[in-house]
Amino acid sequence: MTNHRPGTKSTPLYNSDHSSEHQIEALQSGSVPISVYGLGKMGLPLAAMYAKTTENVLGADVDPAVVEELNEGHCHVKGEPGLPELVAELVSNGALSATADPLEAAEYGIVHVVIVPTPITAEHEPDLSILDAVIDDIGSGLEAGDIVIIECTVPPRTTAERVRPALESTSGLSVGEFGLAVCPERTSSGRALRDIRGAYPKVVGGIDAESGRVTELIYGELTDADVLCVSDATTAEAVKVFEGLYRDVNIALANELATMADELGIDVLEAIEVANTQPYCDIHRPGPGVGGHCIPFYPYFVIAPFETPTPLLETARAVNDSMPGFVVEKLRAEFEAEGTTISEASILLLGLTYRPGVEEIRASPSLALAQQLSEQDASVYGVDPMLESVGEFNLQRLSLADLEDRLFDAVVVVTPHEEFESIQWDELERESGQLFVLDGRDALDVAEITDAGHRLYTIGVGGDRGV
Ligand SMILES: NC(=O)C1=CN([C@@H]2O[C@H](COP(=O)(O)OP(=O)(O)OC[C@H]3O[C@@H](n4cnc5c(N)ncnc54)[C@H](O)[C@@H]3O)[C@@H](O)[C@H]2O)C=CC1
Ligand SMILES: CC(=O)N[C@@H]1[C@@H](OP(=O)(O)OP(=O)(O)OC[C@H]2O[C@@H](n3ccc(=O)[nH]c3=O)[C@H](O)[C@@H]2O)O[C@H](C(=O)O)[C@@H](O)[C@@H]1O
Predict the structure, then answer these.
(1) Domain 20-231 adopts which CATH fold?
(2) Are strands 179-182 and 346-350 parallel, antiparallel or unpaired?
(3) pTM metric for this prediction
(4) Is position 183 annotated as part of the catalytic site?
(5) 233-466 belongs to which homologous superfamily?
(6) Residue identifier of the C-alpha nearest atom 42 of ligand 1
(7) Which of these, 93, 97, 101, lies nearest to 44 by C-alpha position?
(8) Among 53, 152, 314, 431, which is least packed by CB within 10 angstroms?
(9) Using an 8 Å Cβ cutoff, are 459 and 258 in contact?
(10) Where is the UDP-glucose/GDP-mannose dehydrogenase C-terminal domain (predicted)?
(11) Annotated catalytic, 240?
(12) Ligand 2 close to Cβ of residue 287 (< 6 A)
């Protein structure tokens, strides 16, 4: 991969004297080198889409295995339709390559796209240490005419008050000499290429007007959808976080209503489905918890850094975090009702990642479930076809094949991977009495479970639908 820094074929976009048409032509012809920092579930598809458009992307990732796999034309991200083929094509034609040295990428790119993890700490504070490290790397290679685009999700005001001063101090340049903007990634794993290509508008907010203009021009070439330019960088950050807050609060509403199913004596899922026929109603789906490193984390990007009280966000987090406990209590009550105890039980968790088809375990409900069940001395087992190792979980790993000759007292459907459709429920048995099946995601065929003679409890439905 040759270096296209200014002085050769490179064409800076920020403060460019060229026409927009010339800038777009330069972008499309490989004269605008792009550096993408973070080649994970979001960064790799994004780098690929940038490379497809600009033919000149250097990805940077601190994980040597990620870099090595990419440079061999392999796609380390699972479950993204079209991505393996696209990565292979782009690497073979020289449009995409990777380095384990972010400093090399900082020297290389004119456009610097940042999409690294922005997790929270154990104390529920935003952890921007990785972002800080990348920004320091970029600052060391930043040149006049460059632009930095923050795609990772960050607390509002981060770009204006944390990223900008850091870039200015490490580069010795000021905004006005380089650009800085926010274009939050709104994509979902499992449909990343479709989403990035344009399932919905891209949102762009610049630290200054020229940054907004350049970023709008770039994403206008990347996406088929609209590019919505908002007032400033902080507004763009807030748009992304607000989407996640809406989802967490809405899921909490569904979960709270689901816990009422037994007392109401109705199928709450049916009530939700019919309520949602009203165009102003969009109650989400209840479940055994809310996982991933997005939805459960984003509320803390507002709760922690700001003084304004956020009782709704905190209550929603508490409701969603209580759902694994709701499942454990259901199991305990079931065993108690039959005269046994959870401490004598052998319990199987089906699905350990946070949602089907995505190889991510952060904040997965199964983490809390395994921990809480183990604390009650239950024997806990877990199956997940997406995971090679389950060291983070307090349970014993089983394969789907292992289920044939095992006896369980209860099975909990936490994350219904499509591989579980092959389970022969009539072959699952308990040493004595009925197997108790708790369906956390309304994923099972009721008749199949009850015809097999098992007891079924579905979150949101209660214990006796269809039987
Ligand atoms: N996963 C998702 O569904 C979505 C995630 N996002 C946001 O995108 C960002 C990234 O998320 P994911 O791609 O899911 O994370 P990920 O954990 O899948 O990938 C992150 C990648 O960054 C690399 N990395 C870590 N430190 C680095 C550094 N200092 N320099 C360069 N690379 C480094 C890691 O090795 C890893 O390959 C986060 O801010 C997240 O909130 C936004 C929309 C959707
Ligand atoms: C509004 C929205 O759909 N946001 C998406 C979300 O993707 P993510 O991969 O986190 O999946 P998700 O479907 O939100 O699920 C998160 C968690 O919530 C649970 N969940 C989800 C929806 C629901 O009705 N009930 C429910 O319990 C899921 O099981 C999972 O454990 O968060 C992504 C992100 O911001 O990282 C975002 O880009 C995605 O578009």
Answers:
(1) Rossmann fold (3.40.50)
(2) unpaired
(3) 0.95
(4) no
(5) NAD(P)-binding Rossmann-like Domain (3.40.50.720)
(6) 185
(7) 97
(8) 431
(9) yes
(10) 348-446
(11) yes
(12) yes
